[in-house]
Write a structure and sequence with these properties.
The structure holds two protein chains of two kinds.
Chain A (H helix, E strand, L loop, with lengths): L2 E3 L4 E5 L4 E3 L2 E3 L5 E7 L5 E7 L5 E3 L5 E5 L4 E6 L8 E9 L3 E4 L3 E6 L1
Parallel strand pairs in A: 2-12
Antiparallel strand pairs in A: 1-4, 3-9, 5-6, 5-10, 7-8, 8-9, 10-11, 10-12
Chain B lengths: L4 E3 L2 E4 L5 E6 L6 E8 L3 E9 L2 E5 L6 E5 L5 E5 L8 E8 L8 E2 L3 E5 L1
Parallel strand pairs in B: 2-11
Antiparallel strand pairs in B: 1-3, 3-8, 4-5, 4-9, 5-6, 7-8, 9-10, 9-11
The chains are: A mainly beta, B mainly beta.
Chain lengths: 112, 113
């Protein structure tokens, strides 16, 4: 069965530090992969997506993610975190039939 | 702005009552999804519609029902409400082409007292 795991429930980083949020998926073929961000009281906003091709994808707000098939991972990175990046981050997998599976989310706190 | 509109933004009601949540998808999107987000359960998929037809069901209670109308807007009906139904309810839409990501509305916050 398809599943998405985000091992880190909560992460705290200092402003200006680098960030990596982990995501592992379980799916038999190459899935479509997404990262979303949710600010308090808001809906989920798409940060980036991977369908095929270059395994390093760039997104909005300076985020990037790398697809590693051998590790079934799609980790989200940012070189320098800003205070405004504090939010909940969700990794998601899309499979044929237009089904989507979301991880449980990682809450990011940014320390000034 | 995702283009997905949800109304109302907030809803406060009592146990045992029934409410209807409304969603207008992005222009051109045929598929609508409903999700429930609560503190202890995370983001739970409820149900998906494509062009008026139910496509997939997730963890949707029998007290809950949904439909998608010919103009593609969707409604989620919650009945016999319990305290545990208090949550954020999100609608998301996609073209339904199997390639495009979901775009989410800002949600309806339901409080059952």
């Amino acid at each position: 069965a398809q599943s998405v795991t985000q091992p880190d429930i909560h992460i705290t980083v200092s402003e200006g530090a680098s960030l990596e949020l982990r995501c592992n998926y379980s799916y038999g073929a190459t899935p479509y992969l997404f990262w979303y961000v949710q600010s308090p009281g808001q809906g989920l906003q798409l940060l980036l997506k991977y369908f095929s091709g270059d395994t390093l994808v760039q997104g909005i707000k300076g985020f990037e993610a790398e697809f590693k098939r051998s590790q079934s991972s799609f980790n989200l990175r940012k070189p320098s975190v800003h205070w405004s990046d504090a939010a909940e981050y969700f990794c998601a997998v899309g499979v044929p039939g237009n089904q989507f599976y979301f991880g449980t989310g990682t809450s990011l706190t940014v320390i000034p | 702005d995702s283009g997905v509109t949800q109304t109302p933004k907030h809803l406060i009601t009592a146990t045992g009552q029934r409410v209807t949540l409304r969603c207008s998808p992005r222009s051109g999107d045929l598929s609508v999804y409903w999700y429930q987000q609560s503190l202890d359960q995370g983001l739970q998929f409820l149900i998906q519609y494509y062009n008026g037809e139910e496509r997939a069901k997730g963890n949707i209670l029998e007290r809950f029902s949904a439909q998608q109308f010919p103009d593609l807007h969707s409604e989620l009906n919650l009945s016999s409400l319990e305290l545990g139904d208090s949550a954020l309810y999100f609608c998301a839409s996609s073209p339904g082409d199997g390639l495009s990501p979901l775009h989410f509305g800002n949600g309806t916050r339901l409080t059952v007292t």
